[in-house]
Amino acid sequence: MPAPSLCPSPPLPHSQADRYDLSWDQQLNLAYVGAVPHGGIEQVRTHWLLELITARESAGQGLSYNFTHLDGYLDLLRENQLLPGFELMGSPSQRFTDFEDKRQVLAWKELVSLLARRYIGRYGLSYVSKWNFETWNEPDHHDFDNVTMTLQGFLNYYDACSEGLRAASPALRLGGPGDSFHPWPRSPLCWGLLEHCHNGTNFFTGELGVRLDYISLHKKGAGSSIYILEQEQATVQQIRRLFPKFADTPVYNDEADPLVGWALPQPWRADVTYAAMVVKVVAQHQNPPRANGSAALRPALLSNDNAFLSFHPHPFTQRTLTARFQVNDTEPPHVQLLRKPVLTAMALLALLDGRQLWAEVSRGGTVLDSNHTVGVLASAHLPAGPRDAWRATVLLYASDDTRAHAARAVPVTLRLLGVPRGPGEPRPGAGRGPRGTGRGAAGGGAAGVAPAAGSAGLVYVTLALDNPRCSPHGKWQRLGRPVFPTAEEFRRMRAAEDPVAEAPRPFPASGRLTLSVELRLPSLLLLHVCARPEKPPGPASGRPRPRRPGPATPAAPITEPLSLQVTRLRALPLTRGQVLLVWSDERVGSKCLWTYEIQFSADGEVYTPISRKPSTFNLFVFSPESAVTSGSYRVRAVDYWARPGPFSTRVHYVEVPAPSGPPRPSDCERC
């Protein structure tokens, strides 16, 4: 699967990027992004990062830099377990204006080296070496603010980036140019950079050729899913023909959006239409149609440019993952975010792991490729320990791209073959031949890799995402499109955030499962088959840890496990009587989870479960009718067999107004 990623951008003026990047709205937004289960979103590729640095020049000392704002933003990403897609973009305090000026080129190299060394020291090389350092975003669009960027200047700039990073550590990777790659003679900076890295002379070393660790391009769909892949294939074929040394260089499409113009309100961006189309685009990259005879292209990274914050009067219909409501009728005013179906779809995609399995869709005996309304992705996972077990995932989508058909459903028969005949009993021939082969049938099918003998309690779960049941936007419309929703109205909208989950059922002992369903158009349906691990998601006991001081002390001692439990539990204020809880599943050790149990104690002694629908998203807004939120919270995972893991370390919350952060910037459309 391509690594999932996304991009936000601060509004103008870019010199005040901290007012956006460090705002409370953005902090909430990144909490939602980082809460996608199982690392479903890994990277946030942020424009104008270097505008978070301020520069000062003094006599005899040259340039010095203040990294405080950039430190704060990168700390925020790390807190939410996200990696930066680090575009070396922006001019600190407008000190850099011309990259044909040799002094500025040398100073840029020193800045890049200083920056890289700083964060290696701050976070460690093992973390920073995972970052995708990248050139200035879309150089052929000439959005350089006060910087004059000729072709030669852009090549000098690139060499300074490359050598600055290399001076800090050879383990750091750099790619580019992150642009459209229109056919020559358009996009001269894109093609010029590839020519320079392939055959040109390094500004600093004089060597022939400059390293290019990955090629990033931007191909969007103009409303069509398959058009994204078709453009990628055409561009990559041309690159490989002109520059054969780059035949094996990884390719990123780090802005693979269905449509340009993030702020342009589109009804389909509000609901499951967008979610299903994003899954369809991923499936087309995993199972590309071969009608044009071209070689398969699977970008190493596939990213959507959709981490923006929506603004009034379009909370749902812009290209965003969340719907933002700026609620100004409370004292003080506050911000609420709602999870859109496209963000929930990332959680479904995150259940695909291990090895991709053969899967096909057929109609009337004819196999259909991924450029059709119904498609499928399937995977299987082999266990890595006693708290892990064999599992298979089948994700079906019904998508007519940007078009929704409220009254139309597609009848589908899903046949899943190749699973064991019964719990712990491998299917005949499971150990012979290539694993992961099998037969699919009408609708969708996937082959299974048999679990190891001894696995027990094989069950399956279905998760469905469709507009009638899983659209906060639909709820908002039925509520009369309130500008400032009440707490009760927010509760009703949030009740539609998660997919509809059918309780775990025993898998047939025959090893074959047939499901007949009606897929609404659009919709997503995920089938998750899991063998029961030997142990629940986290040890049941362990030696006590030294207790942290705090205002709430349980009546009886609690034994806290050493590992494999919910971690990083935080409580973030929203407004009076509402608090956002967010946690990490990095040490839970299982993807076969039914829900997270959240418990609350007003006095720190007696904990009671909070009633809510099953959900495995690592975030929950607690908004009780009593409006009492001050107290202690703890969270634990519950698997498909109703076995709870250990509780997280408790967090104590005292209700306070949400921080204002830097002043909220004026809303704008050009970002």
Automatic annotation (TrEMBL):
Keyword Hydrolase among UniProt keywords:
yes
Q: Which UniProt keywords apply?
A: Glycosidase, Hydrolase
What are the recorded Gene Ontology BP terms? carbohydrate metabolic process
Q: Which PROSITE patterns match?
A: GLYCOSYL_HYDROL_F39
- Which SUPFAM superfamilies is this protein grouped with? (Trans)glycosidases, Glycosyl hydrolase domain
Name the catalytic site residues.
E138 (proton donor)
Q: Where is the Alpha-L-iduronidase C-terminal domain?
A: 567-655
Q: Which Pfam families match?
A: Glyco_hydro_39 (PF01229), Glyco_hydro_39_C (PF21200)
Region feature (Disordered): 418-448, 532-560
Give the Glycosyl hydrolases family 39 N-terminal catalytic domain ranges: 9-424, 457-514
Matching entries from InterPro entries are given as: GH, GH39_as, GH39_C, GH39_cat, Glyco_hydro_39, Glycosyl_Hydrolase_39, Ig-like_fold
Q: Where is the composition biased (Gly residues)?
A: 430-447
A GO molecular function term, named singly, is: hydrolase activity, hydrolyzing O-glycosyl compounds
Which family, according to the similarity comment? Belongs to the glycosyl hydrolase 39 family.
Listed name of the protein: Alpha-L-iduronidase
Provide the species name.
Canis lupus familiaris (Dog)
Q: Give the encoding gene's name.
A: IDUA
